[in-house]
Design goal:
Layout lengths: L3 E6 L5 H10 L3 E7 L3 H11 L2 E3 L2 H7 L4 E4 L9 H7 L3 E4 L7 H14 L3 E3 L7 H10 L6 E7 L11 H4 L1 H5 L2 H11 L2 E9 L14 E8 L4 E7 L6 E8 L2 E6 L2 E6 L2 E5 L5 H15 L9 H20 L3 E2 H8 L2
Helix pairs in contact: 1-10, 4-5, 5-11, 9-11
């Protein structure tokens, strides 16, 4: 195939990194960008010398696209994915893929039925250190998981509203939840405590600033995820423990600790670049196996975070299977 013609919906935030990666990819070409902010989309269009739109339908109608990056906020997906899939356009959908489980399950079926390749923005799966961790953990029994996502407040106005972002679990800590799923399998249950404790001076905020999720995995492992945006720095990590071993992912680094042995690996790649490269190569080779973070994976990760939010609201533990069935009506 000749160069992959790529369009973008949403050019703010993380889209800037994807735009840079696709611009630098010799097998792809950015042909159009779309954003509801006319100034922002004009700047992106000028930077990359491409057509600009403020209306999704106009771009899909006027451009010949092979692939589309959907980099919109959680509340803004609408039916973008369905429209692109109906035209046979391959998709890379940023996380989270939505806020309503029923809606994203409908999208999941449309995408599957269309036969297109669809990646999602869970870029940490493409880390070289994560690949080493996955190889090491294969066949091992994980007994306990400890995870954290500690960072500062995001000033974007929609982030502070539960109805628009889903809160930190859905919008940010979703990366950690997804990596737990990738390395340890699916969640069985979640029980959440959360509160808005110290960031109450932020106008219009209604999302918790501290969250603690206790969970069990289908494997029988038990764990906890602590999530907060009350700190000035950024730290993320997951620790997987089994009999006589620990696997620690600290940011992008990896430690494997056994009874009498310890080894440390530092990442040597740009995982964002690897993520986008895999998407383009999957299209060029028509090989979905290159995609490590499919739409179905993203839906499962979303279900965990939404169930955790629901547990916090009700004060009750949530079984994932029951929650998903109830959410689908």
């Amino acid at each position: 195939m000749e160069k992959i013609n790529v369009g973008f919906i949403g050019v703010g935030g993380i889209a800037a990194k994807h735009l840079e990666n696709i611009h630098n990819n010799v097998h792809a070409s950015i042909v159009a960008v779309c954003d509801i902010d006319p100034d922002r989309v004009r700047q992106a269009g000028e930077q990359y010398g491409v057509n600009t739109y403020v209306n999704v339908d106009d771009m899909l109608q006027n451009e010949s696209l092979h692939a589309l990056f959907v980099c919109v906020p959680p509340f803004a997906h609408g039916v973008i994915e369905e429209k692109a899939a109906s035209r046979g356009i391959h998709l890379m959908v940023e996380k989270p893929v939505g806020l309503n489980l029923l809606n994203v399950k409908v999208k999941e079926k449309v995408i599957a039925d269309s036969g297109i390749i669809c990646a999602t923005g869970y870029c940490l799966r493409y880390l070289d250190t994560v690949a080493k961790a996955k190889e090491y953990l294969a066949g091992k029994q994980i007994a306990m998981i400890r995870a954290h996502y500690v960072t500062k407040f995001v000033p974007t106005p929609w982030y502070r509203k539960m109805a628009l972002s889903g809160g930190q679990l859905v919008e940010q800590s979703t990366h950690t939840v997804d990596l737990i799923r990738y390395l340890a399998g699916d969640f069985r249950s979640v029980y959440t405590n959360s509160a808005l404790n110290v960031m109450t001076d932020i106008p219009d905020i209604d999302i918790p600033d501290v969250t603690s999720v206790n969970f069990t995995m289908e494997s029988g492992a038990v764990g906890n995820l602590s999530s907060t945006f009350i700190q000035p720095d950024h730290q993320t990590g997951i620790e997987f423990m089994g009999r006589d071993f620990r696997v620690i992912i600290d940011g992008t680094s990896l430690q494997i600790i056994e009874k009498d042995h310890k080894v440390t690996f530092e990442s040597e790649i740009d995982f964002y670049e690897e993520h986008d490269k895999a998407f383009i190569e999957a299209i060029r080779s028509n090989n979905k196996e290159r995609i490590l973070s499919t739409y179905s994976d993203a839906v499962k990760t979303l279900a965990v975070t939404l169930a955790a939010n629901h547990s916090a609201e009700t004060g009750q533990p949530k079984q994932l299977e029951d929650y998903i069935l109830a959410a689908q009506g």
